[in-house]
Amino acid sequence: MENEYHPSRNIGLDLVRVTETTALAAGRWVGSGDYNAAHRAATRAMHTALNTLEMNGRIVVGEENRLGEDLHLCKGEMVGNGRGPEVDLVVDPIDGTKLLVKGMPGAVSFVAVAPRDTMWSPVPAIYMDKIIVDKGAASALVPECLDAPAAWTLALVARAKEKAIHDVTVVVLNRPRNQDLIEEIRTAGARVLLQEEGDSEGALVAAVTHTSVDMLMGIGGAAQGLMSACIAKATDGAMLGRLAAQSEEERLAVEAADLDADRILTESDLVAGDEIFLAVSGITQTRLLKELQFFSDRAVVHSLLIRSETRTRRFILAEHFMRV
Length: 324
Prior knowledge:
The chain contains nine helices and 14 strands. It is of the alpha+beta class. Strands 1, 2, 3, 4, 11, 12, 13 and 14 form an eight-stranded mixed sheet that branches. Strands 7-6-8-5-9-10 form a six-stranded mixed sheet, sandwiched between helices. It starts with 10 loop residues before the first helix and ends with a strand.
């Protein structure tokens, strides 16, 4: 009976196969300039791959805020073959679609899974203010950080990591809504890495230890906020988040959905328990994963699989041989 409700340890490798399949489909559109075609190919590939898995899966947040034809992977959709564990999923076929179609670094494919009813859904919210750090700074992150001046939060993180503030590196999504924050970070003396897209990829780099990034700050996607919470839980990092509507229409939708826009959420509020599987495959070059490569007879995909229960991280290189 337990298997009906909890993902098995084998599901992790199945999820990597899903993100690999998605990356292979999306990889054909790198540098194409065709956003809709790339998004459609990745979404269809992930949808098809998920439906081959031995699970009774439910999408908690996915592609509902995207426009396009034949849209799959939206909130409430059931995926898997209907047998096996009952799970929740957050999916992002391409995190960084604009980067991908421009041939720029930072595009990846993500899937995270946890037992049923353990993921909090931000739908219909579109935006979330968030801070993510790795386990070295997890104890320094307190709720006041979301409202405090950036210099105060940076000082806490720097002290926890035994660094000077000028050695702290912060990823921030490069958007006008984050401009004041960017200036605050620079004034405090920390280093800023502006991220053109790829909110979840930025959270992953911030949460994984032994990278050049110490934290992620700023307003990005709410769906990516849930993915970021899975990342933080799976890596022993920490996260703070709060819905941050950027229009009156979004504010009213959040209010109608009875979501508390003032509540400061931690990673455990967003995803409960400790049975999270996270799979990510690189499409273009990232700070953690090499880019997808096509050769005459094969394709090479680099992926990362994290299991929160055991704190295991597996970097996987897969060669997919193609019929000629």
